[in-house]
Amino acid sequence: MKIKLNRMPMKYSHGKLKLIFSVPAKKIENLTYAYYIYQDGKAIQKIWYQPLETVTTIQVEPLFSGAYQLRLFVKEGDTIIYNELTETLNIDCKNQALLTTTLADEKIFFNDVPVKYLFQPAEGASDTLLLSFSGLYSTEFQGGPPVYNHIRTLEPVNVHKLFLLDSYQEQFCYYVGFNREHDFERAVIALITKIANQYNISAKRIIATGSSKGGAAALYYSVKYNFGKAIIGAPQIYIADYLNKRANSPSMRERYERLLGENQQQGQRFWNQLILHEVAVAEKFPDMYFHVGEGDFHYPQHLAPLLQHLDKRGVAYQLDLESYENHSDTGLYFAPFLLRTIQALVRK
């Protein structure tokens, strides 16, 4: 027979998952229930059949952060008459917080801190992992949330693609963290390493990409972690100087100061030297492909000083200069450069 089971949405509060369901009292006889607990799509615990109450409450206290679901079974005698999987709840156990996703395929990786991402595996075999770091979207300057970049641009490229969202406590952190700490960075590199290991991809077969803030991150990660290639558009090198000039709204100023940390002076020095320090101590470099507008202030104020450091160290790179002035036009020119460069690399 079919049973009408009234199930409330699964909730999370005070460190516990709670699922409440009920059946009509006159149908309670000879009914039992069981459930499986899933974390990140894997069954981690199975609770066997027990008598059903008119109103039954299941409570689970997760110990480890992840995406949780329950699969509920109801039997009448020996026959399963109900078998359904609950909605997914993304739980940050450390902070006892429920996290939400905004896109259908978006997932959350939990390490030191949660990292939101989109992963698109290649169709068929591929030994290449492409990383896409996002830039600062215009609404973020008014307190808006971070967004992904270049998803449509990279659609024709058949490699493994990992789109990383720079969202730490609901704001940007240049994929590093606040207050000169690297907790977000540790989580990001742990996610990259996990996916690379899963698909047997070496560091030399990782391509880091991004423009503006994303370009700064692609440069930083590719140099620090010895990735094979980096495709970089108009990056900020002196990050604190750039943000200080553009922190004109109260919300942007608050985010900027949160990024710097308690000691604002040290924070400014840290962010202005973050990338140049990695360039100074690196023993080898990725293949680097730079793009920038000839009239964009990022060229003389940020990229040119970096290229001088690379020249002094005898590091080879390629530079694509386009004839535009506004940094806001970077996306229009960088997107085709990005696609063209990746397709050429993949063909090789």
UniProtKB/TrEMBL annotation:
This is Peptidase S9 prolyl oligopeptidase catalytic domain-containing protein. It holds the Pfam family Peptidase_S9. One of its GO terms (biological process) is proteolysis. Residues 188-328 form the Peptidase S9 prolyl oligopeptidase catalytic domain. It comes from Listeria grayi FSL F6-1183. GO terms for molecular function: serine-type peptidase activity.
